[in-house]
Write a structure and sequence with these properties.
The chain is α+β, with helices and mostly antiparallel strands and 308 residues long. The chain has helices at 3-6, 10-19, 25-37, 49-59, 64-69, 74-80, 133-144, 241-252, 289-296, 302-307; strands at residues 90-94, 109-113, 122-125, 167-170, 182-188, 191-199, 209-214, 224-225, 229-230, 257-265, 268-275, 285-286. It is globular and about 55 Å long.
């Protein structure tokens, strides 16, 4: 079921999910999983990666994850791993739009919700002299007004743990050719197993193309996910891909699973974010068997199951 075609407004969908916040996590995840994938969710013996992400949400709750999903607080975590040099320069973090001194910002910058995800939680200002600041302030104000205890449909608990949504403003990264590739590393127990490159997406998932690779840099031709087109040509990997893998592994150490997002601009690595629940675990893979292959890489150890 493509619910986005039925309810086209993001705000309407968000309001419906906030209204349903009283529904306990387990039945909500089962409902959402069925609506978005068309399959029954198996939590007793999960096999698919998408199923294991739902299990992960419910039963694995390391407090450090709260720090890591916050786009500002994670900076200290990155520094603690000895990777301060990969942080994107930050112009400040603010509790409200009223605190921002817009005239002191450079001509180009990126503004984000510290606890947001997707296209509705980031704005790109390419030319401050032509920016629609009223719309920008209006959207940013909706971020800081979010109740940080209300659960959404994804039930990604680190995001509604009580931390306040804030506004972070960072330097805008740019490649000479204008196509800023996004590298997303799927790490399991601190080891990169799979990664994909997203190119040409012009800031929106649906407009780009993705290419999956194994840890050994083998292109998985034809493998993709439903929210982004698959590239029909093999993307070139940067010369420092080994350094990027090393950074991702340092940042993911200690977690059963984490997706580490990095950029590479003129051979310099930059940190994007840490995500524990890729697409909230509601994506569809092509081929479908890849969901199971990824699931096999994500062991839910007896120790974790016993503890949680």
């Amino acid at each position: 079921m493509d619910y986005k075609k039925i309810i086209k407004s993001y705000e309407t969908r968000a309001r419906i999910l906030r209204f349903l916040s009283f529904v306990p996590d387990k039945p909500m995840l089962k409902l959402q999983y069925y609506i978005k994938t068309g399959r029954q969710l198996n939590l007793k013996n999960p096999q698919r990666f998408t199923e294991k992400l739902q299990w992960y949400k419910l039963y694995y709750k390391d407090p450090l994850m709260i720090r890591c999903v916050d786009k500002y607080d994670v900076r200290e975590y990155v520094k603690s791993k000895g990777l301060e040099d990969i942080l994107i320069p930050c112009y400040g973090v603010f509790d409200s739009v009223e605190e921002i001194e817009w005239d002191k910002l450079p001509n180009q910058f990126v503004i984000k919700d510290t606890l947001g995800g997707g296209g509705n939680a980031v704005m790109f200002v390419d030319d401050k002299s032509r920016a629609d600041f009223e719309s920008l302030k209006e959207l940013a104000s909706t971020w800081t007004a979010i109740d940080n205890h209300v659960r959404d449909g994804g039930r990604e608990w680190p995001y509604y743990s009580g931390k306040k949504h804030r506004i972070i403003i960072e330097e805008m990264l740019k490649q000479p050719d204008g196509d800023l590739a996004d590298y997303k590393f799927f790490c399991f127990s601190g080891r990169v197993m799979i990664f994909y490159i997203r190119t040409g997406y012009n800031r929106y998932h649906a407009c780009g193309k993705m290419s999956f690779f194994t840890r050994e840099r083998q292109w998985l031709k034809g493998v993709g996910m439903d929210y982004c087109a698959v590239s029909d040509i093999q993307q070139n990997l940067p010369n420092n891909i080994s350094d990027m893998i090393e950074c991702a592994e340092k940042l993911s150490t200690g977690f059963p699973h984490a997706r580490i997002d990095l950029y590479c601009v003129d051979s310099k690595i930059y940190f994007g974010e840490i995500t524990f629940f890729n697409a909230s675990g509601y994506m569809k893979f092509d081929p479908d068997s890849f969901d199971i292959e990824l699931g096999n890489m994500f062991p839910l150890s007896a120790e974790i199951k016993e503890e949680y």
